[in-house]
Amino acid sequence: MTLVESLKQTINIIEKALPDSVSMEEAAKTAHMSPAHLQKAFTVLTGMTVGEYIRKRRLTLAAEELTRGDRRVIDIALAFGYETPESFAKAFRRQHGIAPKEARNPGARLSCYNRLLIHVTLKGEKAMNYRIEEREEFQAVGIHREMSMVDNEQSRKIPKLWGEVNENGTSETLFKLNNGDLEGVLGVCVDKGNEMLDYWVATEFKGAVPKGFEQIKIPASKWAVFEVHGAMPDAMQKAWEQIFSEWFPSSNYEHAGTMDFEMYKKGDPMSETYYSEIWIPVK
């Protein structure tokens, strides 16, 4: 199943379930992707998380329901997944700018989010430098944090973790420990299910696990390795966007479903000449 087909399937299952919600696990199973990969691809290509899309669509349909008749606000709130009129009113006002009762007023202005239609434009305006590598399983050592993917929480916690390891010297220690073929520090996402992931800051290391660190095994895989040139985090974000919007739709490869990672070389990450890589397991 191609990336575009997977995202279309995701939108189909979400729309069929409305006004009920769909778990990330359900959506990922339908799309034949891991929850973490689905969340990343969906966010990069649509500009919103799966949860945000569901919330916007539910509040759009709730507004339509309010304008159609005299059904009580509390009944509509419960039907669309809100436990109290207050929580519904708060979410409704955030999207539409007015209270639910005001939606019934003649001429009330509402913010409508229609069903997403996935169209990928293959621009190819900027060359993508990549290579295909095959590697056996290897060991990395580092530290990790458990994070939720609900409401894209990991996108806020991952930069915070990098700030911590850069400030307390952990990243510098990992650069010194590195003795493998991958010369850099890795940012690794490990999908744990139930909309949770472990994010690792680690480095390839051969030998007994050093004190203060833990071990992670990176499974054997065929990898698509993309070059990233430029200052962080913009260069990395743009590279992911190009991979999902251009490379996957136009290549014969699919994401293999196991962990992917980013590799950061030594140097100034704020420099326009900084070099890093994205490693994606493919099949």
From TrEMBL:
Gene3D superfamilies tied to this protein: Homeodomain-like, Regulatory factor, effector binding domain
Coiled coil: none
InterPro entries the record matches: AraC_E-bd, Cass2, Homeodomain-like_sf, HTH_AraC, HTH_AraC-typ_CS, MarA-like, Reg_factor_effector_dom_sf, Tscrpt_reg_AraC-type_HTH
Highest taxon in the source lineage: Bacteria
UniProt keywords, alphabetically: DNA-binding, Transcription, Transcription regulation
Pfam family, one: Cass2
One annotated GO molecular function: sequence-specific DNA binding
Residue stretches making up the HTH araC/xylS-type domain: 8-106
Protein name, as recorded: AraC family transcriptional regulator
Taxonomic lineage from the root: Bacteria, Bacillati, Bacillota, Bacilli, Bacillales
